[in-house]
Amino acid sequence: SVTDLPESLTMIGNTFDLLGTQVSYGTLFMVALYVVMWRFLSDTAPGRHIYAVGNAPEASRLTGIGVDKVLIGVYVLAGVFYGLAAMLSVARTGIGDPQAGQTANLDSITAVLLGAASLFGGRGMILGTLVGAVIVGVFRNGLTLMGVASVYQTLITGVMVILAVAADQRIVAGAAEQLIIA
After folding, report:
1. Whole-prediction pTM value?
2. How many Å apart are CA 55 and CA 78, to the nearest integer?
3. Distance between CA 60 and CA 51 in Å, rounded?
4. CA–CA dist 105, 1 (Å, integer)
5. How far apart are CA 40 and CA 45, in angstroms?
6. Mean pLDDT within 52-77
7. Which of these, 78, 132, 150, 181, could form a disulfide with 114 (CB 3.0-4.6 Å)?
8. Worst-scoring range by mean pLDDT, 67-81, 115-129, 137-151?
C-alpha cells in the first residue's frame, strides 16, 4: 500500500457542508458524470448506436452502424470510467492499495442488473443503474453495520446477482413468448 499521497490525488475525496450534511466532491463528480452520460446515451446518435449494437449487432451493421467502432468506443469509455473510479477510491481512502476494490466488480454488476439493465445488451437506463448502485451501497453498508463478515457479504451479493439474472431471463423469455403469440 502507498500512503502519504499528495493533496492533488486526495482533494476530490474532501467534503464540504451542504445544508448541514457533509458531501464529498467525489459525489458531485459522480452525479455530474451520470447526468452527462444520461444525456449522451439518450440524446445523441452515438448513444443510440450503443443501445442498437447491444440489442442487435447484426441488424445494426446492416443499417450502416460501424459495430466495431461502437464496441471499441464502449471499451475505451469503460477503461476511462474504471480509471476514474480508481482515482475516486484513492481520493476517498487516502491510500493506494492494490487489494482495494476486490468486490467492486461484483457490486457494479449487481447494481446494473438491479437497475433493470440486461446482461444480454440493448436494454437499461442510467437512472436505473444509479438506483441499483444506491441499493447495493445501502445493502452493503447495512450488512457491515450488522457485523456480517465480508465473505458472507460477497456471498449474499452473488445470490442477488443470480436472482437478478434469473429475473432478466424470465423477462426475456416472456418477451419472446409474446412475440411468438403475436
Report:
1. 0.74
2. 18
3. 10
4. 20
5. 8
6. 92
7. 132
8. 115-129
